[in-house]
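Study this one:
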Amino acid sequence: FADSTLLFEKQSRNTIGNIRFSKAILDAEHLPPPYLLVTSAFHMRRALLICKKAGLQVTPFPCDLSPAANQVSFDQLFPSADALSGWNGYLKEFVGYIVTSFKH
């Protein structure tokens, strides 16, 4: 890619902010869609929903495709620090997706 095709957004603190600020940059530069959405595979579903609600036509490009990150083991069903840590990410994405679904 040429340097002129890479734009960076540095103001956001979360996914919604990143997409809003990125949309403003893309609109100001008059760059035609589709745009490449790069995020972790685990986070892609919610990021795509936010892009859709923002009116951004994106092509998903998931990264961080760790098979271990996508597997739920039997041990995670029982109370432990590791289980709590694993469920934290799942719950955050699940709740975030539900909340985003009902917004706007």
Summary: The helical segments are 15-29, 44-54, 81-102. The longest strand covers residues 35-40. The first helix runs from residue 15 to 29. The radius of gyration is 16 Å.
